[in-house]
Write a structure and sequence with these properties.
Strand order of the largest sheet: 1-4-3-2
CATH class of the largest domain: Alpha Beta
Shape: globular
Structural class: alpha/beta
Strand content: 25-35%
CATH architecture of the largest domain: Roll
Order of helices and strands: EHEEEEHEEEH
Number of helices: 3
Number of strands: 8
CATH topology of the largest domain: 2,3-Dihydroxybiphenyl 1,2-Dioxygenase, domain 1
Number of domains: 2
CATH superfamily of the largest domain: 2,3-Dihydroxybiphenyl 1,2-Dioxygenase, domain 1
Helix content: 10-25%
């Protein structure tokens, strides 16, 4: 059986939220996304949905019951280091919970973590995969347990 290698990129990311309008404000005014669509009574999917574009990524927001609990499962968007303070200030105005940064090794980038109003964790990150792999290779191991980078 041959291996299928047709995946090209991420198509879209969907978040289920209680209040699509509140999420729209957070995405558009807090992060600078652009709203492209609102089904508003003409549902073609499971429920009302709104589509946004943020950093070239299609974000779908669907009305429904969000995750009951918070976790570290998250989506991260790449931003410049100079933009982090601006994002932090805008997000603080919305009253979202901004988390303290996790411990990092020098050179793997900076992050701003925050929860939206429906337990979704977002990260705004300044680094790249290549930078992180290079940095971890320089450290010699990825974790204290000794997992080597291949």
């Amino acid at each position: 059986m041959s291996v299928i290698k047709e995946c090209q990129d991420i198509s879209h990311i969907t978040f289920v939220v209680r209040d699509p309008e509140r999420m729209a404000l957070l995405l558009c005014e807090g992060l600078g996304a652009t709203e492209l669509y609102d089904s508003d009574g003409k549902n073609f999917s499971l429920s009302r949905e709104k589509f946004f574009l943020f950093g070239g990524v299609w974000i779908a927001v669907m009305e429904g019951e969000p995750p009951a609990e918070r976790s570290y499962q998250h989506v991260a968007f790449k931003v410049t280091p100079a933009a982090l303070p601006t994002y932090r200030a805008r997000l603080e105005l919305f009253g979202v919970e901004i988390k303290p940064p996790r411990s990092r090794v020098e050179g793997e980038g900076e992050s701003l973590y925050f929860y939206d109003f429906d337990n979704h964790l977002f990260e705004l990150h300044t680094g790249t995969l290549e930078e992180r792999l290079a940095r971890y290779a320089g450290v010699g191991k990825a974790t204290d347990e000794g997992c080597k980078i291949h």
